[in-house]
Design brief:
Elements (H helix, E strand, L loop, with lengths): L3 E3 L1 H4 L2 H5 L2 E5 L5 E5 L10 E5 L8 E12 L5 E3 L2 E3 L5 E4 L4 E7 L2 E8 L2 E9 L5 E10 L3 E13 L13 E4 L2 E4 L3 E4 L4 E11 L1 H5 L5 E14 L5 E8 L9 H19 L4 H11 L2 E2 L7 E2 L2 E2 L6 H11 L6 H12 L9 E2 L5 E2 L5 H16 L2 H20 L6 E2 L6 E2 L14 E2 L2 E2 L6 E2 H20 L5 H17 L10 E4 L12 E3 L8 H4 L9 H11 E2 L2 E3 L16 H7 L5 E2 L3 H10 L8 H6 L12 E2 L7 E2 L3 E2 H12 L2
Antiparallel strand pairs: 1-9, 2-3, 3-4, 4-5, 5-6, 5-13, 7-8, 9-10, 10-11, 11-12, 12-19, 13-18, 14-15, 15-16, 16-19, 17-18, 20-21, 22-37, 23-24, 25-26, 27-28, 29-30, 30-31, 32-33, 33-34, 35-36
Helix pairs in contact: 4-5, 5-17, 6-8, 6-17, 7-8, 8-9, 8-10, 9-10, 10-11, 15-17
């Protein structure tokens, strides 16, 4: 894997250290997450964040474990870092942090106090909400180490205040149980029970959200580090509180071995692929409701079917996890209703509210069979997939239907809906409703019909009708989507703007957006890519970290994905950069023999800049294209891994 490590120039400077985040998942949708400096900058940061019935229903438990070193001189040195509502940063342990590194995907800190060097390692027990934190003396005289357990128990999207009831603490052997929900265990436990008031989260402040909370100082652990190599460790876990985990040092070793095995099994071609393989693993989870699922992004997303299907090839087929992928496709296909795939939402409700998620399922199944030769799965899913086509021909929810006039897929007509991946709303109003016939939806429709026809023929069945539907849709696509601008319309046959009497009966949207890339990039794309067109698209949309969602010279372009929720949602698809779109762009370029040798340089460097070892959800549309959104995003990682592996 690539070397991800920082010395005192980054570690000891709070702005840089606090802007780089690490993630250790537990395989169930929970995680430990924080920053290089140790400062909690988000409400979502914590050492034990536990998934509920769904990955999105997470709760923060152990917020931090603050170390203090008692030197032989009697001086006490605090290694933690907190920011307060007053603006003060106290303690300032980051100033003593001489090195941080990710080693096999696990974070490792090293503090120096003169000749005393203390190291911390952290891991989660794979498949269980359990974190192990190990402190080790690397050099220096004997010291005493105290570890303050700072806790809460709340929804990860919220805060908890001291004006409410204090967390319940029950003493147990070696520690305490907090709120009956999670357990702390370690040496020489001393309960305290005290509120720490006004903890500040700078990233939440930047996002225009509530940025302060109160935390509960539950108590402290302590131990002696007599000689180099000695350790003092703490465990924290939820679920099955009476089931003691293995020793903390064993948890770290187990997690490290597992990560190495996962990477080796994928047979990566280089260090970048190895890093992306481990990044991909973070999103593949087993939950209370599903044997295999995909978390769309950390720290705030749960499972979303569109994200899962777009990510499928990169997360599963490019990492040699086809067996798990097979189970995922079967379980997702089982949710089909009226020809639509359930969009498993973070609200916990099952909703059917995408026009493209189902079409991405058709693509994912076709790619699975093409790569693995798993015709048994094709045979099993074929009736359900053919039902998708039948339902779209007949018409299904939200006015989604095949237009009998041309065989293309139309959607919308229901006020307040945004059914494509550009689905942001501000105060309930879609920013980009894209009602009509969106270009990528119809590229996926053409692609899905051809892929399904091939699966049908592999099963020894007649695909004549599917071939006819495909040819009709492909012909109509080629006639309708090319625009006079030299690229493709983003939507055709949309609702007419207000025209004078005798105006046009419909509207074709020719704003330069990246959705058209799917018309050239998919396996059964309706168009052959044209180098001149791709260069026009690249000139307006391509950035070092991905493609803009709207060209800068278009009305409504927003160059900064910043501010409060309304500002961020308003700009989400109005110029914000999306790294996942590099996948379709690279595929289209390769098909037209346009070189992409230099496309990956910046995005690979990005692996050490924001979400360490991973790829962000979004970035600003204007230079310097600062990363925004989730630091760890499934489809961003999956598409980069896929298009690198298939070059």
């Amino acid at each position: 894997m690539i070397d991800i490590g920082f010395g005192p120039q980054v570690c000891g400077e709070l702005t840089g250290g606090a802007a780089r985040e690490w993630l250790v998942p537990d395989g169930r949708g929970g995680y430990a997450m924080g920053t290089v400096s140790g400062l909690r900058t988000r409400r979502y940061h914590g050492l034990l964040v536990v998934a509920g019935e769904t990955p999105a229903s997470r709760r923060v438990g152990l917020a931090s474990l603050d170390a203090s070193v008692l030197l032989p001189s009697g001086a006490q040195v605090r290694l933690g870092t907190h920011e307060w509502s007053s603006g003060d940063v106290d303690p300032r342990g980051y100033e003593l942090l001489e090195h941080f590194a990710l080693v096999d995907g696990l974070p490792r800190w090293r503090w120096r106090i003169g000749d005393v060097v203390v190291e911390r390692e952290l891991a989660m027990l794979p498949g269980r909400p359990c974190v192990a934190v190990v402190h080790r003396l690397l050099s220096g005289p004997p010291v005493r180490l105290e570890l303050a357990a700072v806790c809460t128990w709340r929804d990860a999207h919220g805060e908890r205040r001291a004006d409410g009831p204090a967390p319940r603490m029950e003493p147990v052997d070696g520690g305490a149980v907090i709120e009956g929900a999670f357990r702390l265990a370690g040496p020489d436990w001393t309960p305290e029970g005290q509120w720490w008031l006004g903890v500040h989260h700078r990233e939440e402040a930047a996002r225009g959200l509530t940025c302060e909370e109160d935390l509960w100082y539950a108590g402290r652990f302590a131990g002696r580090l007599e000689r180099p190599g000695d350790t003092v460790s703490v465990l924290a876990w939820a679920d099955q509180l009476d089931r003691q985990p293995p020793p903390a040092t064993e948890v770290v070793a187990t997690a490290r071995r597992r990560n190495r095995r996962m990477v080796a099994a994928a047979r990566p071609a280089d260090a970048v692929e190895a890093t992306l393989t481990l990044a991909a693993d973070a999103f593949v989870v087993r939950t209370h409701q599903a044997p295999v699922d995909v978390v769309a992004g950390y720290p705030w997303f749960g499972a979303w079917s569109r994200d899962t299907m777009i990510s499928y090839e990169g997360l599963f087929l490019c990492t040699n996890r086809a067996t798990e992928g097979r189970e995922l496709l079967r379980s997702y296909a089982a949710t089909l209703s009226e020809g639509m795939l359930a969009n498993t939402a973070d609200t916990g409700r099952v909703e059917y509210n995408t026009v493209d998620g189902t079409l991405w399922l058709l693509h994912a199944v076709a790619r699975h069979v093409a790569v693995t030769g798993d015709t048994d799965l094709a045979d099993e899913l074929l009736p359900a997939l053919r039902g998708v086509v039948d339902a779209h021909l007949a018409g299904t929810r939200y006015g989604i239907a095949v237009d009998p006039a041309d065989g293309l897929l139309t959607q919308g007509g229901t006020p307040g809906t945004a059914l494509t991946w550009m689905d942001a709303r501000v105060y309930g109003v879609p920013v980009t409703p894209r009602t009509g016939k969106p270009v990528e939806v119809n590229a996926l429709w053409v692609n899905g019909l051809a892929g399904l026809a091939e699966l049908t023929e592999l099963a020894g069945q007649d695909a004549g009708e599917l071939r006819r539907l495909h040819e009709r849709a492909r012909t109509a696509f080629r006639e309708r989507f090319p625009a006079p601008t030299g690229w493709l319309h983003d939507v055709v046959d949309g609702p007419a703007p207000t025209y004078p009497l005798g105006g046009a009966p419909h509207h074709d949207d020719d704003l330069l957006r990246p959705n058209q890339l799917l018309a050239w990039s998919l396996p059964y794309a309706p168009l052959e890519p044209d180098e001149a067109t791709l260069r026009r698209v690249a000139a307006g949309l391509l950035t070092p970290l991905g493609l803009r969602s709207l060209s800068p010279d278009s009305p409504g372009f927003t160059g900064r994905h910043r501010g409060g929720p309304a500002e961020r949602d308003g700009g989400y698809h109005q110029g914000t950069v999306w790294p996942w779109l590099l996948g379709p762009y690279v595929d289209a370029c390769r098909r037209s023999k346009v070189s992409v040798d230099e496309v990956f340089v910046a995005i690979e460097a990005h692996l050490t800049e924001y979400g360490l070892g991973s790829v962000s959800e979004t970035a600003d549309g204007l230079p310097p294209h600062g990363a925004t959104g989730c630091p760890f995003q499934a489809w961003s990682v999956a598409e980069l891994l896929r298009c690198r592996r298939t070059r």
